Fold this protein.
Amino acid sequence: MSADSNAAAEYLQEFKEITSSYSPQQVYNADETGLNFKALPTKSLASREEKSAPGFKMDKQRLTVLACSNASATNKIPLIVIGKSKKPRCFKNMNMNALPVYYKNQKKAWMDRALFQEWFEKQFVPNVRAYNEENGLPDRALLLIDNAPSHPDDLELVIGGIKAIFLPPNVTSIIQPMDQGVLQALKQNYRKKLLRSLLEENEDLTILQKLKKITIKDVIFWVAEAWENTSFVEEVVPPVNECELLPLVKKIPGCENVEKECVDEWTAVDDKGFEEYTDEDIVAQVQGVPADDSCSSEDEGDAQTTDIVPHSAAASAFDLALRYVEQHAAATPNDFARALGKVRAQSEGIVCDAAAVCEGFRATCRVSAVRANTHYSGRGHGHDSGQPLAASLTLRTM
């Protein structure tokens, strides 16, 4: 169905009245998108690589991502990422609460009503209440969402003064904020990281071998960083040839002659993150049938318990990384980020406050960066985390 401009215009006035007693800090929007996290920008390259490894479909390996922020862009809620497996093998011994996203599973990696309800109650509402309290705001907020079949009824999405309201049918693409370039910018930021990973990996490996090494854990950390680096500004998504995607793509073996149109298609390859339900699906959800945790991807098989990394090993890793950044005067911000990544990988099994551990190491790296006369951002690829987030995301009515 095409977007209904007249219906959108009528709703704008209604929305102004609904939100008149709320500040932009209290008005939120959330939306899902699929993420084909190993898709390549050319069909010919993808086909060639897949023929060399029958059964490996890089364009079919997908997750669902839900992004949510308030209209002032001052409270970007951590992403929810939905995969097929309850605990992928790459998460073995990992404290799931240490992930930078809220990870859940569903048999087809789609958003569904039960998962959305859980996210609303366990993530959205507590986060909004904490934000309101910190900023002296009343305990109330509005969550604007579309009428996707994966969303519960509005009466189920009310806790105290925090509630959801729905966009009218057939106007989402015109007035939903997340559809005005925000999700596209998020996925472009993710794909920059994917391309850089392929370029920085061992040059002796083929593209297929590099892709096979990428795990869901890698994807989760990349997409979380991509979300952190997504700015909400007018015309947030620049043309592809101005946002570094096209030059990066051309550096990938087999993509040297890729055209801009092909890259445009690649950035739009993802689905919405939910599926239309059959009658059987609806009955299963009403009856509360649990999701099937089975999956076909080797990476998504459930993790097996192995030995936990001892505190002494983590301490040794910290010490080694610190000595590295102190001894190399020509070290770059990327070196610091890679060292931090190695320490993160070593310390994920420790039962402790992972965020505090990483922040402590970042502080140490900043000191070392000063000694090396460089700048450490703590993000990788030279991103300056000290730059303020542009707070100009607005609903078209505000």
Remarks:
- The first strand starts at residue 27 and ends at 36.
- The chain has 13 helices and seven strands.
